[in-house]
Amino acid sequence: MKTFHHLIVEQIQESDLQQLKGHCFVFPTKRGGVFFKRALLQKYGHHDFMLPTIFSIEDFVQRMTGLSITDELTLLFHLFKIYQKRDNDLEFDAFYAWGKVILKDYDEIDRYLANAKQIYSDLQNIKEIDHVFGYNDEFREIIARFRTLTEKQDKTKLLTEFLKIWKEVGAVYEDFQGELLKEEKAYGGMLYRNLASVLSQDHFEHPFEYYHFCGFNALSKSEEVIFDALVKAKRAQLYWDTDNYFMVEKKEEAGDFMREYRTKWPDSIWFDADSLSDPKTVHVHAVPQNMAQAHLAAKLAGELIHQGAKPEETAIVLADEKLLVPFLYAMPLHDHKVNVTMGYPMKSTIVFDFVLCYLELMRKAQTTDQGLVFHTYDLRPFLSNAYTALFHEGIYQQLNEWFVREKKTKIGLNELLDKVKSSQLQALLKAGKQWEDIANALKAYLTAAFYDFKEKDSGLTDREFIYFFLKSLNQLNDYLRQKETFSLRLIKKIIQEHFRAVKIPFEGEPVQGVQVMGFLETRTLDFKHLIVVSANEGKLPTTRNSNSYIPYGLRKVFQLPTFEEQDAIYAYHFKRLLQRAEEMHFVYDNTTQGDSTGERSRFILQQLKRYKKLEHYTILEKSYEGLIPKAINSNEISIPKGPEVNKLLSRFLQGTEEGKFLSPTSLTNYITCPLKFYLKNVASFRELDDLDEDIDARNLGIVVHEVLEFLYKPWLNREIGAEQIRLLKGLVEKQLIDSLERNKIIQENQQLSGRDLVTKQVMEQMIQKVLDLDAQEAPFKVIGLEAEEFETLVAIDGIGKVRVSGTIDRMDEKSGELRITDYKTGKVEFVSKTLMYKDPQAYIDKYFDDPKYKSGFQGYLYAVLTKGHFDLPVKVGITSMRKLSEGTQWLRDGQTIPADTITMFEEKLQNLVREIYDPAIPFAQTDDLKRCGYCEFQQLCKRGG
Ligand code: SF4
What we know:
Number of domains: 5
Bound molecules: iron/sulfur cluster
Number of strands: 27
Pfam families: PDDEXK_1
Domain PD-(D/E)XK endonuclease-like: 662-942
Organism: Roseivirga seohaensis
Structural class: alpha/beta
Helix content: 40-55%
CATH topology of the largest domain: Lambda Exonuclease, Chain A
CATH class of the largest domain: Alpha Beta
Strand order of the largest sheet: 8-14-7-15-16-6-17
InterPro entries: P-loop_NTPase, PDDEXK-like_dom_sf, PDDEXK_AddAB-type, Restrct_endonuc-II-like
Shape: globular
Distance between the termini: 47 Å
Protein name: PD-(D/E)XK endonuclease-like domain-containing protein
Largest sheet: 7 strands, parallel
Number of helices: 38
CATH architecture of the largest domain: Alpha-Beta Complex
């Protein structure tokens, strides 16, 4: 197979070799350059000549401008300083997230040579906003995005703040450029703009005699100007890689840019493949679940090599990079050399979790006369991380048993050190609360972990992750060292935010072994055998993520890229990748679990439609039922629904003696992980550490619910006014003491002091605050307190009627509406309202896909349970005890829930229950390892500590 790089080399004659040293070849990626070098040496390696300079485009602009691209954090600090001059009260903490968006917008503005001043023209009032942003929906979306970044909820404030930023962002742009140039710093876009402008000047001193730009597509405006200037000066050649059919067929978006370039630069060199005339074999594999995809891909790769495919001509392309680690675990590495050329998201690594858990532990540790005191609530996540157990096996289990046995909620440092066997861990725990000491301890620990893996010749990927993390931490530390005023909370947030977007580049010998890569890393590369994994709609191409404050309308006017171009870019990369392949495997997840759509990518559908008309194409489609037979990873646990399990499941049926039902919590357990649901709610399996919920948090929930119930009980079925609620406030303390005694949290007549007193005060404040909120809402009629009488039945053929029920904390009637309120002590998250307006079904689906929306899930479930019992429109809200200042957070922005939405939810709920009882679907482990983070069955599943 002749690859694109071989074709470029063919253009170089033997007689040209001596001139090459003054030439420069530029590729979209570094990898492209490496493959070109190999192809060049394959042909001319035995000749005596000096290699040309080979660059990625990013390195090229740096070399040409003599400036290097400054790292994001430094840029952010500079930008922050400028903003701070305009707003003294601005804190880095609040600025960090939206500052990143602005930085990205500036970068794009420069790459596309747009006029920042005009883009950020005075948006003085709402009228102008409407005019400029055009779509109100979009503006709402931008504000919503801003809201998620600022954690501010008050809408008016939010809008004012957003407009304030908008008003200044144009002027800040200029100051920012000036500041950076003074210090010889720059972001990427600045360099592109700079090069585009200097190249057209006559006196520009070229560092190279001749330039070759190879394999580009969808050029930014600045790239276009750069290429054009050099072509016109007869100093450059352009090489394009295309396929006949997408150049000829006008409706083919893959050829959108290329057709334009063919007219613009007719003298370029075009490599037009004619892929449709060559015979190919195409396999489409429908696999249930993410993990199974990784296993299948590993199996297919092994088989291909076994059948004689050359490893370096074989690529596994992961459209979802999260599958990298599962794939590497599944791939028999001893048999095959694997080269990973992709960035892996730092946020999905164990080391990232480890560092965050550790920082949280140290941040929340209290300083007392006897030294640091840790809360078991913070210790548990830290102890259960796999890296904590590296030097003390089983530490989580041992210490947790001790916490439970001794009813410990807090532990002093010395007491803890006695239980910890490893000196490395001891050093971590002893680090104290100063960032510098913490950073040193972390470095020492992770370095020890690195060498430990190395010594055992294991954890190859872990070593890569640790190495990269330490490198980044050192860099980060250089800044943090000068910021003594930064609290540990802020440092943790910076680390969290900073690493969230970071990808770990895997660096190896890229031309050897089976190639594993992300989709964008395939640019300019060709492989004979291709396995594309996560070939699902939504992953290929990825869902559009417009992390920008510049709306669509302005983007169009100023010729900045929009999502339409994004699709054309993806289409080109995908179709180009296929053009020289002889055998292709597309693996996709056909379930709708997690973030999977269950559908194959539209790119695959388009190609299959085209291929099916061609006789010399062989298309084989295969669907895998259940998990892949003989699980490749023997650690996988899956519980089939045999007679024993069915017997246990039958306890939730109507008419059984035990009176059991599926509760909202058990159903969210199922959504989190079917195996967890089975272990916890079906088999009632209790790990010792099942008591791991923080005792204080549990008590708090019980007591606060109980006191509010008792206070309002006399008002059941009566209307209560603000004045009467204020009178209830006087009864809180007495009811609280009663409840604390009833629940044996304090002894009868106990004189409260220390922790008990604080606990009581916290609870009291919460209850008082709830009553204050209620007084503002009064009058209303109390119609239910801790109500347990509502249930819905799901009929399943041949099995019976499954009961779904729960306890509704409070129901009241106000202004002709039924209001259902749930008190929560944990975090509350709802699915975005934008989605609710855009796609109601997808909105409801989210509640069934992602357990983080469990509060909303519960809310809708209550609306289903009470359906038909009241002749009133229903509204559901969550009162978060930890965020009482925000008041009750109402689902659907405080609107009542339309009947058809309740029905939509009910239908999904019935499907979920039917799935639980479906004999063909075993209780399998979740694919999402993050969900295992706080699961009490980690030990059993060998996931985590
Ligand atoms: S550890 Fe993970 S896989 Fe195992 S039960 Fe818990 S959530 Fe499921």
